[in-house]
Each structure stands twice: as C-alpha cells, then as structure tokens.
Description:
Structural class: alpha/beta
Radius of gyration: 22 Å
Oligomer: single chain
Order of helices and strands: EEEEEEHHEEHHEEEHEEH
Amino acid sequence: KIQAQGAQTQTSPVGGSRRMLHAVQPRTTASPGRTDADGGIKAITASGPPLDFSFKELRSCAEIETEEPRSGTLRRAGEAAAGSDLASTNGALKTSAATMPQLRCVVRSVTTTVKLNNNMLETISSLPKALEVTMSNPLIHVQWLDLSFNQLVSVEPELLSFKNLKALYLHGNCIRSLPSTDRLRRLPKLLSLTLNGNPIEANKIYRTYIVGALPTLRSLDHTTITEDERLAATAWFKAHLQRVKKRREEKEFGDVEE
C-alpha cells in the first residue's frame, strides 16, 4: 500500500540493471481534474519499464510505430494522453476513501527510457514523430535514450527535441564530426553521454573537446568527469573558440583583399 505521508521510491530495470528512481513529491495544490469530492488526489509518478526496440534490425525510426517492443507498453490508437490516466482512477480512489480516507495517492507509471540500440539506423530525423505515436508525451518524458551500435553519421538536431534528456548513448556509431556535438549544449539536463567507438574518438582532443563543450556533463563514455578535468577542459575550450574565431576572421579578411 502507498503511504500518503511522503514520496516512495520505486526500482525499475534499465539496461539489465536496477536503478533507484525517486517519485515526485505529492503536490500541495491539486490541479483541475485531479481533485475528488472529498479532497485532493496527490499523484506519484514512477518510471515504468523501458520501451525497448533493441536488436530489431530497424532501418527507419518509423518502423517502431508498428514494431512490438521487447519491453514496455505501446500507446494504442485512441488511448488518452498522459495526465488523463489520473482521472480514470478516480472511481477506485473514491471507493477506498470511504474506508481509508487518508489514501489519496495514485502511482502513475511513465516511460522515461527508450532503447533503439543494435539496429541499422542511419538517421533519427523521424524519431520524435514516431515516438509521439508509440508513447505519451515523449518530448517531455524521455530521459534516457540509447542509440548505440547503429549507423548514425552525425549528432542530429532532432535530439534537441527531448528537453529533459539526462542520458544519451551514441557509442558504436559512425559519427565523424566533433563540432556536431556542440549542439548538445542545448540539452540543459544532459548528465551522461557516450560517444566512444565512433571515428571522432581517434581525434587527440576528443575528450577535452566534449567535456569543455558540454559543461553539464558528469560522465563521458562511462567515466566520471572530475572537477579538475572539467575546469581544464572548460579553459581549453574557451581558448579554442577564440582561435577558431580568429582564423575565421583572418580568412574572411583575406577573401576581401583578394
């Protein structure tokens, strides 16, 4: 039974291991549609099982709209969007409230992890649209996205659609452009990133560049970023940008003279 006195912790298997996921504290003010006749209904959100499309030989993200996942639940046609599931449980809550009025909590399971690793994807341009079909509010809920061991050649701008992304796995792809990783700066909550096993890893400034370009990172390629490493990389990256700017200006000035 769920105790009303505080948030509970739930464990969820992700990537073959179990990790602790902390539930959201009950809201002090119930929003419209989240209150029954006897009082407010406090929602606790817990991460559900990952939506797992790994090892499916997918060539296009659009294929996940019809593919059956290894785990997780697909959003079926006509299914209500996330947030309305609380209303659907009101009847059960009212019934239990008669005997146990202190129970005003409901756990809402939300998919926060999507696994598309070990496929044959060359682009993820259609990923946001495909996930909108298969799950509720993916652009808000997805926090962990595994795209490792595909055939991606660039860090594509579509990744920026997932504003709450905390972990992004891109190792084992064909990414060659180091500057293309700069756009990940626009993911303010990104904490863990993997890019090892890509051609860019052979660049001698690879790790320094990534750590300096993405100051929010706490881990790169499954290795913790120390504070000393962060400070050194940040200083190097700042100087690098100044050098790039100077070279660009010199080139433009030379073109004008010609």
